[in-house]
Input
Amino acid sequence: MTDYGHDLLFGSFITPTNQDIEGVLELTRVSEAAGLDLATFQDHPYQAAFLDTWTLLSYLASRTDRIRLAGNVINLPLRQPAVLARAVASLDLLSGGRIELGLGAGGFWDPIVAMGGERLSAGESVRALAEGIEIIRGIWDADNHTRLVVDGSFHRVDGAKRGPAPAHDVGIWLGALKPRMLRLIGRSADGWLPSLGYLKGLQQIAESNMIIDDAALAAGREPAAIRRLLNINGQLSAQPSDRLLVGPPRQWAEQLAALALEYGVSAFILAGDDRDTLALFGQEIAPATRELVAAER
Amino acid sequence: MDYGQPLSFGATISPRNGARAAGDPLAPVVLAQRAERAGLDLVTVADHPYQPDFHETWTLLSWIAGSTDRIRIAPNVLNVPMRLPTVVARAAASLDLLSDGRLELGLGAGHYWEAMSAMGIKRLESAESVAALAEAIEILRDLWDTSKPGPLHFAGTYHRASGAERGPAPAHRIQIWIGAAGPRMLDLIGRVGDGWVLPGGTAGLARLADGNRRIDRAAVAAGRDPREIRRVLNLTGSFAPSSAVSSAVSSEMLSGPFALERFDGPPTQWVEQLVPLIVDGGISTVLLSGDDPAAIDVFAAEVVPAVREAVAVERAARGTTVRVVPPLRVRAARRDGIDYDGVPATLADDAVEPGDVRYGAVRSNYLRGGSPGLVLRPRTAEEIADAVTWARTQPVPLSVRSAGHGISGRSTNDGGIVIDVGHLRRIEVLDQASRRVRIEPGARWGEVAAALRPHGWALSSGDSGGVGVGGLATAGGVGFLGRAHGLTIDHVRAVELVLADGTAVRATEDENADLFWGMRGAGFALGIVTAFEFEVDQVGDVGFGQLTFDVSEDLPGFLVRWGAAVEASPRDTTSFLTMGPPRAGKTVAHTMNVVDSDDPDTVIERLQRLADIAPLAGQQALILPYDTLVSAPPRGGHQAAGEPVSRSGLLEHVTPEFAAAADRLLRSGTTYFFQIRALGGATTDVEPEATAFAHRSAQFSVVAMGASHDRIDPVWDAMRHHFSGLYLSFETDQRPERLLEAFPPATLARLRELKRRYDPDNVFRDNFPLASGVPDGAIGKATGRVS
Output
């Protein structure tokens, strides 16, 4: 059981529906007003009921002041990595360093292919993601004067100009569940961003942390360099329960603090699109969790 | 050569990110905002994703959209080969939706292939790149078109899609402008483009005349009108007080390549140079490059107005018609009888016609499929007046829509015009003490309820938050708080409306009192409301009980007991009963009961009276804010097909005879939805002659929906003698006798008098036809059903 010692982040996971755009803007405003650190949005470009996530992030960044924004997670198979790198750097510069890069290898291959993307096997998609990350980091590395060449099997650059560098060290957080992806995180990413609903239990966090940590150490990195984030769902109720995140705010805070201290999770991103719950999450649950964690640390 | 396009002027801004020069990354945004403040129409941004000194253009444009309000935006031009066309389609539609329809799309086939291929893009030969762009444009337009059936399959040489979901449709018909120099690209513009972006500077002007000819030839060969295609000029220059080199354009110069130097000189000289480019050269959009804020101001303040004026004079002198010629694919889908070119300029931009990408979302309403020839979407009361004044001259059906949720489905038609007031949706408290609230007709009741909740107020409407304010608040409003607080129209204190002749009037008890009377119950026939003022009620949390009964044993007896229990309930209680036909021998009655009280004991007591009448099959009781009962679904448009079939009756009491008839109706299999809503209580406080909704003694409103009039009418007509009238918003039968059931003779006579005065030409004839000009026997034939 590890606590990697990161400051805690609290965020929202907002559905980017194009059927209720005012609602999306409102949930983002609520997130910022509630003091949340992050507003994040899933990216499924093949889903016609959603807004294009990158367009939405850029638009929202111009209409917020403080909150950080991220895709959760950006679908690399339908985005050109070198162009994505510049887009991220641009938005980070425009927003004064408020952008993080949640990134995924792709999972829904039928609709990806329907949109004109390439079908990749699971293993190929991990390799493609690794190549993509190398390109993205290469573009961001503006002060490096060597020629940027990534001769990958899926993505290539050959002499692309480097730059611009983002305004801050943009974190690359990977949505991942399986060992190959976890090892890639250990080698080359800045964060692990799974969804609680897809995990088989908390034990899977502990096991995955070990895989990430081992891969990090093998690559000469500190495991603590990698933030562990978690997409969560929950239900606020007056009555406490023995279920995870079903109960009053105090119970949530205690359970989140335990996740931070015992499982190393340092960012909690709440789904559900409910403005009242988000407000309470930012105004009460986040400070209470921080207090509990600070006291224990 | 002048294509008669309306002029637009803008600024082209370079997307410098300032990263290497320690500049301000927001500098391009500041310039865009400056262009907006200066009054320019458009800001465009070049796109060179391989250039590290530049922002990625889509990101920057999206940011600019978020930090401006009015100015249109466009990439100039988007490097298509570096992006997947399917994703570009989604991104463009998204940005258009987010910016409220402010995006146009300049596209390019790619130019700097060296830099592009260094970024990992497959290098294409020139001819290939044109073909690839043509494919991409086809994908964009097809993916936006949600009125086409099924997903998109496209097997091109360069791009493909295999079952991509269509949508979202953009907020408006996005124009696709193409940056082009070579003949193949010019031919492509002629075939499919909405605009030609000339190469920058003098090089572009040198190609103007030849390029126009080439484009026009290709357009005509494709059956298009060259006036569909906008010609867009990017120019650079300075307003140096003394111009060193400059020459005015003469018409002779237009026959050959333009020999213009840069635009250097005072504004007057720019004007002299620009006017011939427009009236002889066919340019209709002029974009100033150079990133110089002072130049943007001078351009907007001194050049643009003078050019507009001079061009207007010249066009008038030459008899040039100024108008937007929509693309062939749109014109081909037009309906007969509508003068599309005559749509008032204020409405033309936002109007939707059958070939438009937005048509799929506006053609139908909640229950009725429609195929209108034109949907006008005014944004202000003045624009509603423009719409009415123009629409009345068109010999086609005219419908009016607030949110398109009406049961009778009158808000669409086949081949006619729809005036959709959905853009007018503000809700504003006028006076806290008297609870006076101003609400525009396009707001929906869920939005109204949510806006009133923080004040501890509510306004009874119906049972659905998706219903629009305009239709319901001019007809009646039989809602969840009806017995406690009356009909919705009983809360109207003032209406502002546009009459059939386009005049705006205000009607209250004191001002145009007769009109005010008619607007409450028959407003659809007298004008289009642009705003209501309501006196709303103090309503805290309410009790909401759902009681389900198994009534298989004795449905008639149950109905009688329910009716009696409802009538005996205090007026804080309103009950709605809903049933379907018996299934597998079992008949279930579902009731929704709203108690205007947040006191649990009161709520339980009220529900208990209603629960005691029969064995319960299910129950749930909650105390909740009123607005959660009528929350509005997202505004996604309606997708109904076919015709609704709904019959309405107003009932004094649930008598054993009526109950037996209702039992027969339910068993006949002709209705799939049968509902009785409680009236009574406060709805009976208003005198019958006080409003045009006269049936004040009714204690219940009954509705039955079926699959066809042929089947349900014989059964329903046999029940008619039980009813004292009908509620026209729930009635789809258009036989003339329905009119007399909707309005008792005295009310009808008064309404016809109003109709003669305010709408003598029967402009508002889409709903129940008061038709003062025709004899009684012919009433109802003025509007046919949409087939």
Summary: Residues 9-296 of chain A form a domain with the TIM Barrel fold (CATH 3.20.20.30).
